[in-house]
Every structure is written in C-alpha cells, then in structure tokens.
Write a structure and sequence with these properties.
single chain; alpha/beta; seven-stranded mixed sheet; three-stranded mixed sheet; 49% helix; globular
Length: 265
C-alpha cells in the first residue's frame, strides 16, 4: 500500500499502509481549533473516507496538549459577527463532528494533556479513546455565557444525560480517571505507555474483517445516531448564544480577563 503525507495549516494527515494518522499540529496554540482548521480537518476526513486502503484512523495531537478547544482569535471574530454568520460557522463545526462520528472505518482518539470544550466532542465522536492518566477534561462553555451545543449529541451519547447535566452546568475540570469512569475514554495509561496501548488497539482492529468492521459501525449508528434535526438545533443554539447579551458579556469578560457580570450577583 502507498504511504503518503498531506499537511494543511494546523493539521497533518499521514497514511502508512492501512493506518491513517490525523494530527492536530498547532502546539504553540495548544492545538486549539479555528474555522480554517475545521475546514482542513473536514478535507482530510473526506480524503480518508475516499481511500479504500485505509482501515483505521488515529486522531492525535502534537505537543503537550490534545486540544484546548476553540482558538481565542477565532472566538473574538465570532463574537463580533451577526447571527447568520455565526450560524454558518457553527454548521461547519457540526459538519466536522458529524463526519468524524459517521466515518465508516474505526477511529481512535489518542489524548494527552488538556482536552477542553470542542476537544471533548472530537473524543466522543471517535469509536475508541485512549488517554494519558494525567490528561484533564473540561466543558467550560457556560463560563463564557455559551453552551456546548454543537458537540452535545455526541458527548451525551458517550457519557449519558445525567452525567452531562452536571458537567455542562458546572464546567468543572475532571481527571482522566473520572473520564474513564464517565465512559468518555476507554482506557488510561502513563503517558510513556500510551503509544504501546495505541499499537495494541490498532493491531486488534486490523485483525477484524474490513467489511465486518464497517458493518459493525453501521449497526451501532443505525440504532443510536443523532438526527439532522439535532445538528440544526445545536447550530442555531450556539449561534444564538454567541450573539446574545449574555454571550457577548461572557466572551468580553474572558478576553478582558475580568469576572463576568453574573459572577457578582
């Protein structure tokens, strides 16, 4: 099988035989994503789906952290745009999550360091998630006057509605051990052992029949996948929150490094 590498701004796709590695490559930004990175990830996922020789996808990140969520510059730009522009932007993120969630081949998330906000959506959209035992997770959106809308269908499916009621509302940081307990990740290990665990899972997946693996994924999707109506609802919700008075105050407070107005009430 042909090996190749394709680098776009902020991410790299490497294909070696039957295994594709999609790497977030903005370590100086803690691999936070913006609209450009979302477009590049969508492009890479389309290429993976169109490549019949690829049987497994690994989603990983370069540097200390998996992904800090949304890029601050992107958030500032979104806060200054109107509802329709925010809706268009949110639909792109919804498209990325839906594409990753419905990819026909097995997907594995390799997580280290911080995984905040939308990063938890990426993890939840993967079939298997492995994390270092020092990884930290947080759904911090409400502290900005927002909600984890676009990723919610996948995160709720992974961790359950009851668990998400707490984590969505408190925006508390939780540990890798808790993420394992909450079923966001399937396995944790010391950072130095993470690649060994990853290799073991890849070997296990490659021992299955390629058509059978795709059929097994389709079987689960058939009975549990979110609907198109869910995608539209979540896109509209985050667009509404971004342009709302509270969303503007929360984002403004974050960027001004001050407490939001509701913190003193």
């Amino acid at each position: 099988m042909m090996n190749h590498s394709d680098t776009k701004n902020g991410c790299t796709l490497n294909v070696e035989g039957p295994v594709a590695r999609l790497t977030l490559d903005r370590p100086d930004k803690h691999n936070a994503f913006d609209d450009a990175l979302i477009e590049h990830l969508i492009s890479h996922l389309s290429a993976i789906e169109a490549n019949p020789s690829v049987r497994v996808l690994i989603l990983e990140a370069k540097g200390k952290h998996f992904c800090a969520g949304a890029d601050l510059g992107w958030m500032k730009r979104m806060a200054s745009l109107n509802y329709d522009e925010n809706l268009s932007d949110a639909r792109k993120l919804a498209e990325l999550m839906a594409m990753l969630n419905s990819l026909s081949i097995p997907t594995i998330a390799r997580v280290q360091g911080a995984a905040y906000g939308g990063a938890i959506g990426l993890i939840a959209c993967c079939d298997i998630a492995l994390a270092s035992d020092t990884a930290k997770f947080c759904l911090s959106e409400v502290k900005l006057g927002l909600a984890p809308a676009t990723i919610a269908p996948y995160v709720v499916a992974a961790m359950g509605a009851r668990r998400c009621r707490r984590l969505f509302l408190t925006a508390e940081v939780f540990s890798a051990e808790q993420a394992l307990q909450y079923e966001l990740v399937h396995e944790t290990s010391a950072l130095e052992d993470l690649d060994e665990a990853l290799d073991r899972v890849v070997r296990s997946l490659l021992s299955g029949g390629p058509k059978a693996l795709r059929a097994a994924k389709q079987l689960v999707k058939k009975v549990t996948h979110p609907s198109q109506e869910d995608f539209e609802y979540t896109s509209k919700l985050i667009a509404e929150l971004r342009v709302s008075d509270e969303g503007q105050e929360g984002l403004g407070a974050f960027f001004d490094k001050r407490k939001a107005s509701w913190c003193d009430s």
